[in-house]
Amino acid sequence: MRFLAIFAILSVLLLAGCAMPGAGASQQGTPQQGAGGTPPEPAASQNQSGQPATPAQPAGIPSEHVTFSSFSWVIHGTYYDSTAAEPTRGIILLPMLDTGRDSYPPSLITRMHDEISNAPVLAMDLRGNGNTTNFGTWQGFQLEDYKAMSSDVVSAMTYMKLRHPTIKEFYLVGASMGSTAAITAAARSPSVIKVAMLSPGMSYHGVDIGSATETYLHPLFIAASREDRESADAASQVFALSPTSDKTLKIYEGIAHGTDMFEATKYDDESLEGLLMAFLKK
What we know:
The protein is of the alpha/beta class. The chain has a single domain, classed as Rossmann fold, CATH 3.40.50. The protein has helices at 2-18, 106-115, 143-147, 149-163, 177-187, 210-215, 229-241, 260-264, 272-281, and strands at 64-70, 73-80, 89-94, 121-124, 169-175, 192-198, 203-204, 207-208, 220-225, 247-252. Strand 3 (89-94), helix 2 and strand 4 form a beta-alpha-beta unit. The protein is globular.
């Protein structure tokens, strides 16, 4: 009898437990909790639909994730449209190797949008970087692949002209390997009238920029960090080689490279963001 009583009590307890949500279940309308007691987040490289994640955007500025073709590569970018109905210029931002189009600070893009109202901004992922990987990543590149990055910049200009046929001139801003793509594209494109090179190299991954630097005749802005010795030396060489009379060289203290210089200099009297905006606006 005692055994039957204990068995009956255990049966009631088991039935009650089955009627309640278990520890690993989630109730409708309540996010499932992770081990640390906070809702689990999707992987950084994807959104919840499994598609590539959209980079963080500057607050209050309409943006659009766009793609366009460049010699069979599917180039990904973020497009910030102009406030002008018929913009006449376009700005293209080219990131460092192994980074993406979100590496330029939102504050810079906000200022471009607000202070250069006749120019939409396109931040793009160079081939082999960011979401532009339909033929692989930069780690497997050969010399010709790096050289072809300038063709992707030319394709970006074509894309912007198709969106806005009134665009006639371009400003290119490139960081590290992006600066190589910028100056080599500018040397072959008369519509490029301003180039900014952040932490340039005279021969990143074998792509020599000496000839392109001597060919480009329009305003040029160059910046590097003193302890980033390769780039600081290259910045001085680019400045010396450039035939334009409208050129600026800024060497910052420290070791920050490429787009990292925005954060490193943001409290300087002559911050990189401030000097770059002054260059683009003049």
